[in-house]
Amino acid sequence: MQTEMLQSVVGSIFSNQYLSSVIFIGIYLMLLSLGVLVGRRAGIFFLAVEGVMSVSATAGYYFDGFLRAKLLGGAQEGSAAYEAVVGKANTLGWLGGVFAGLLAGLLFTLLFCALLLYSRANELILGFAMNTLAFAISGFAFNLADRADSTSFVLPAPLPAISVPTIQEIPVLGGLFGTMSWSLPFAIAAPFVVFYLLNKTDFGLRMRAAQENHAALIDAGISVEKLQLKGMMFAGVLASLGGIVIALAGQVKDFTIMPRGEGYLALVAVWASAGRMGKSMLAVLLLALVSALSPALAGVFNQTPLLQALLYVAALGGMLLHSYNERNRHRARLRFQRLLLSGEETVEKRRLRWHKKKK
Question: Are 65 and 145 in contact (CB under 8 A)?
């Protein structure tokens, strides 16, 4: 019995279904985490990231569906009239969904920033309130769409797929990457683009000052609020793209009717990694691997809530590790300051030791 269960578990973990779930979860969680990372660099705790995801996913999903239904004009699938317009309807549908999702996410981010930066609302309370508002809006949109007939709303068109014949011939990889959505190469490129913008451009370096040294920006005549607003608009775009990936995969109802904690996971991935890009992306991968276990093992174990709880146990472990490392770094800084005051240590001695270790 135990051997059969173990074989079922191993088979489920190495199945295409599990690996496809890891890729899907990793894509949208990566985009959310990049949004949180940019928000952190702008000096803002982007607690409303899940609300932005929910609003953009809802807008993208339903605008795509309603626009596609309008273009199809009630034509029956398989008919000549349907075949004549389905290509155009699909293309304009997903393009409209992307545009609507981005617009809704940006407007929601703008509202969050206006209340936070200019009304000086409490960061935590505002974040929770915005997330609650987002899920209320999504639920209302779902109820409206549920009442629409088949001529007013149809299933949205997904993102177009890319076929790679060379990879299609490779076992396992062919099923995963032989035919893939445009969201996958985009998600692979996104961390590199964000890293370059944050570390190699004037905009990114100024945003670091917004996180660490407001006085330097004020002395340079730069408005801190305007710089933070620009950074948060960029963060809102990234979080909105995460919602759009969910919307055009057709899974919006699972993510927008009630909170699932995706925003919390993105915050954990960034804060447990101290805002470092590489470590944050590694944390996203680990969370995606754990998160995909629940649907993959649902047929093996009856305790699905227990499997889902493993994800948040892993997230809690990451935060505890981060707290431990921060405490050790704080102690090291205090020890160095005491040695400086006593004269036993100098900055020059420390620099020389660092160069020797580097060599």
Answer: yes
122: left (phi over 0), alpha (psi -120 to 50) or beta: beta
Name, of 74-78, 98-102, 247-251, 314-318, the range with top average pLDDT: 98-102
Does 164 map to a domain?
no
Residue 108: pLDDT band with limits 50, 70, 90: very high
Q: Return all residues near 225 (Cβ < 8 A) that are at least 6 apart.
A: 117, 118
Q: Is residue 357 part of a domain?
A: no
Q: What pLDDT score was predicted for residue 257?
A: 66
End-to-end CA distance of the chain: 56
- The Cα–Cα gap between 31 and 232 comes to 14
What tens digit of pLDDT does each residue of 322-355 get?
Answer: 777 778 777 877 776 777 677 666 656 666 666 6
User: Is residue 236, in this structure, part of any structural domain at all?
Assistant: yes
Which residue shows structure tokens 């915050």?
A: 267
Q: And the tokens for 297?
A: 């093992």
d(CA 333, CA 315): 27
Q: Which three-class secondary structure state does DSSP give residue 42?
A: coil
pTM (predicted TM-score) = 0.84
pLDDT (0 to 100) of residue 2: 56
Q: What residue type is assigned to position 265 of the chain?
A: L
* Nearest-angstrom CA–CA distance, 194 and 207: 13
- Residue of 276, 278, 296 lying closest to 288 (CA atoms): 296
Count up the domains in the chain and report the number.
1
Q: Band of the pLDDT at 14, cuts 50, 70, 90?
A: low
| Dist CA 88 CA 68 (whole Å) | 9
* Residue range(s) defining the domain that contains residue 102: 20-159+178-260
Say if 326 falls within a structural domain.
no
* Beta strands at 179-181 and 161-163: parallel, antiparallel or unpaired: antiparallel
Query: What 8-state DSSP symbol labels residue 114?
Result: I
The structure tokens listed for 324 are 């431990």
Give the per-residue pLDDT at 158.
72
